[in-house]
Specification:
The complex is a heterodimer of chains A (232) and B (282). The model of chain A has no long low-confidence stretch (mean pLDDT 87). Chain A is mainly α and 232 residues long. Chain A has 13 helices and no strands. Chain B has two domains: 218 residues, Rossmann fold, CATH 3.40.50; 41 residues, no CATH class. Chain B has a six-stranded mixed sheet with strand order 6-7-8-3-9-10, with helices on both faces. Chain B has a four-stranded antiparallel sheet with strand order 2-1-4-5, with helices on one face. A three-stranded antiparallel sheet of chain B has the order 12-11-13, with helices on one face. The longest helix of chain B has 16 residues. The model of chain B has no long low-confidence stretch (mean pLDDT 90). Classes of the chains: A mainly alpha (232), B alpha/beta (282). The structure holds adenosine-5'-triphosphate and magnesium ion.
Chain lengths: 232, 282
């Protein structure tokens, strides 16, 4: 049922289109600037050091994924795809695949540019990245599904992505204990904690558990919203 | 006689609001069938139903001799081409990149791109960005994309609306040629000239119900009031009957070398539409 050839066609089309999309490209360089800024500073504390990685996932994994989906609706190109032999699963697999590849390239780039110290346990580190990618691409897909235009994606997306992707930045401004406790379970903080513990050689099982739960829940939610909204 | 589309007694409601009411018609293989109706009469809705993009509450729709739902099967989907009134192209990509995507999706050789661009009169434009094309050219690219996989059955929703006369004429000649080559065409329009020029049969849609259907010529003849206008060289006009008295009148004008022109007063499709629905087409 699912054809690799058709998925590849979607990936190539989306890739070409992104390369010519000035709005997306200018958004996509933000993590690179951040990495550059971090590299310039002498003493950067560990949690902040991983920020370019989380921001890469927020922007490239979630925000661009959402915008690309919303744009297909806004520009009425989705109907044509749906009337072709391409099925909806293939459209989403294609788009998610491209987002994943681009995010991974971005993460490698920010690590190199930011000269970010990576944990030695490459396998666990890779696993953490892949699980987080699943989380952010799912969030992006949901945002794309619920908004009708690219503009709407930004309006709905920015607050959502602040919460899910940059909560540790605001952590310092929050006084209340229980809010800190609760936000500690957000994917970005779990991800950063996981990396820190990996670096310090501490156990990471609990963080993997929380992240995996997020990933599974969000994938299920994505499929549910997708079935319900049918793109319209 | 084989019917490619059979619609019987279909009702369609949108949250309680009736959009189509007891709709019945058939389309034969090889014909160009036009759905003519004013804005909001249900033309697009009908097209959505016929292409399995929308469900319906009552009645039955058969396409290619099977339930319309079967169109969702990729194999059946390859037999139809759909151009809706809000089909979009990828504006940042070239004409060729747009068509390449659909070649892959439909399993069509890239060589077909040159062929199809030639068919729609856009040879040599493949490397142009879609965003740089005129409206009429974009519409022809969309048409090229729609016929890329050589569908047997074409669904076109107002294919020439808001186009200039030259572009409209181009599209009409493309459609006529496709039809001569055997493609069955279902099109919607609110342009009576379009219906008259390219449709073998038309249906008048009003408030979701078909009021009248048949070949444009037959409709005009059956609604003709049989009067004939003769214009004399001095500019005078006479209305005469289509009878011996009228013939006498015309004969006399010819004998006296006074006659400038004679024409029968067949109503236009627009006139007939107004007559049967009490409504203007646009
Ligand atoms: N998705 C929808 N939800 C609710 N009502 C709808 C929907 N689509 C169409 N309608 C209603 O159904 C009726 C027929 O609409 P339709 O779009 O089929 O008309 P149309 O003949 O194509 O008009 P136009 O010439 O403006 O394109 C209208 O009253 C419209 O408001
Ligand atoms: Mg319409």
């Amino acid at each position: 049922m699912i054809s690799a050839k058709r998925i590849q066609a979607v990936v190539i089309k989306d890739y070409r289109d992104l390369l010519k999309n000035a709005y997306m490209l200018s958004t996509a360089v933000i993590p690179l600037f951040l990495a550059f800024a971090i590299n310039q500073r002498e003493e950067v504390q560990s949690p902040a050091m991983f920020m370019p990685i989380t921001i890469s996932m927020v922007i490239v994994g979630a925000f661009i994924q959402a915008s690309v989906i919303a744009e297909e609706k806004e520009k009425n190109t989705l109907r044509g795809l749906l009337m072709s032999p391409l099925n909806t699963a293939e459209i989403f697999i294609g788009k998610s695949l491209l987002s994943a590849i681009l995010t991974i390239i971005m993460i490698v780039a920010v690590i190199l540019i930011g000269n970010i110290n990576m944990p030695d346990q490459t396998l666990l580190f890779t696993a953490a990245i892949l699980i987080s990618l699943t989380i952010f691409i799912s969030i992006g897909t949901i945002l794309g599904l619920v908004s009708r235009t690219v503009m709407e994606t930004s309006v709905i997306g920015i607050p959502v992505l602040f919460v899910f992707g940059m909560s540790d930045i605001f952590q310092t401004m929050i006084e209340s204990e229980w809010v800190i406790d609760v936000t500690g379970y957000l994917p970005d903080q779990q991800f950063v904690q996981l990396l820190l513990q990996l670096q310090n050689g501490q156990a990471v099982g609990e963080h993997f558990l929380v992240l995996s739960t997020w990933a599974i829940a969000l994938v299920i939610l994505t499929i549910f919203i997708f079935k319900k909204r049918r793109f319209n | 006689m084989s019917n490619i589309i059979d619609v019987s007694n279909v009702d369609k409601e949108f949250s309680g609001e009736r959009a189509l009411d007891d709709l019945s018609f058939s389309i034969q293989s090889g014909e160009t069938f036009g759905f003519l109706g004013p804005s909001g009469s249900g033309k697009t809705t009908t097209l959505m139903l016929l292409t399995a993009q929308e469900g319906y509450q009552a009645g039955d729709i058969q396409v290619f001799g099977a339930s319309v739902e079967k169109l969702k099967d990729p194999k059946q989907m390859k037999r139809v081409g759909v151009l809706t009134d809000n089909t979009g192209l990828y504006e940042r990509l070239t004409v060729e990149a747009n068509l390449r995507l659909y070649c892959k999706l439909y399993d069509v050789n890239y060589q077909r791109i040159a062929e199809v661009l030639n068919e729609v009169g856009l040879s040599g434009e493949e490397s142009k960005l879609v965003s740089k094309l005129s409206k009429g050219m974009k519409q022809r690219v969309k048409l090229a994309r729609t016929i890329l996989h050589k569908p047997e059955l074409l669904f076109l929703d107002e294919p020439t609306s808001a186009l200039d006369p030259v572009s409209t004429e181009r599209i009409h000649s493309i459609l006529r040629r496709l039809n001569e080559e055997g493609t069955t065409i279902f099109l919607t329009t609110h342009d009576m000239y379009e219906a008259e020029r390219i449709c073998d049969r038309v249906a008048f849609l009003n408030k979701g119900h078909i009021q009248l259907q048949g070949p444009p010529r037959d409709l005009r003849v059956s609604h003709s009031n049989s009067s004939i206008t003769i214009l004399l060289k001095d500019g005078r006009e006479h209305l005469v009957g289509n009878d011996s008295e009228g013939a006498e009148h015309i004969k006399k004008a010819i004998a006296n070398q006074e006659l400038a022109s004679v024409h029968s007063n067949e109503p236009t499709l627009g006139d007939i539409f107004a007559l049967v629905t009490g409504k203007e087409l646009v």
